[in-house]
């Protein structure tokens, strides 16, 4: 926590918008959250990218797989490297 400014220096990610439902699906023989499944793959491929970009690319992957949910990110670190 950045005590000098009174806020936590973090970024948050949610699987979908508040009015949406996060989907689970059978992927590779297991039921799992489709956002997390795709987020892991996108973040592995784009480790040097910002949290905002990783979230956007995850949303594009979900859309390409015909899932309507739209991942969201917020916080002070969204513009920073995701795995910094």
General description of the model:
- With 84 residues, the chain is an alpha+beta fold.
- The protein has one domain.
- It contains two helices and four strands, in the order βββααβ.
- It has a two-stranded antiparallel sheet with strand order 1-4.
- Strand 2 (24-27) and strand 3 form a beta hairpin.
- The model has no long low-confidence stretch (mean pLDDT 89).
Got a strand count? 4
Give a quick account of the main beta sheet: strands, pairing sense, barrel closure: 2 strands, antiparallel
| Mean pLDDT across every amino acid position | 89
Rough shape? Answer: globular
User: Beta-sheet strand percentage?
Assistant: 15-25%
Regions with little confidence, pLDDT below 50 for 5+ residues: none
Strand order of the largest sheet: 1-4
Number of domains: 1
- Our Rg estimate from Cα atoms comes to 14 Å
Number of helices: 2
Structural class: alpha+beta
Q: What is the element string, with H for helices and E for strands?
A: EEEHHE
End-to-end gap: 16 Å
């Amino acid at each position: 926590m950045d005590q000098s400014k009174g806020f936590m220096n973090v970024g948050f990610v949610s699987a979908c918008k508040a009015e949406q439902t996060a989907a689970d699906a059978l992927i590779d023989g297991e039921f799992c959250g489709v956002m997390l499944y795709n987020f892991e793959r996108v973040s592995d491929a784009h480790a040097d990218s910002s949290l905002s970009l990783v979230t956007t690319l995850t949303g594009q992957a979900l859309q390409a797989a015909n899932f309507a949910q739209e991942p969201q990110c917020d916080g002070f670190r969204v513009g920073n490297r995701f795995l910094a």
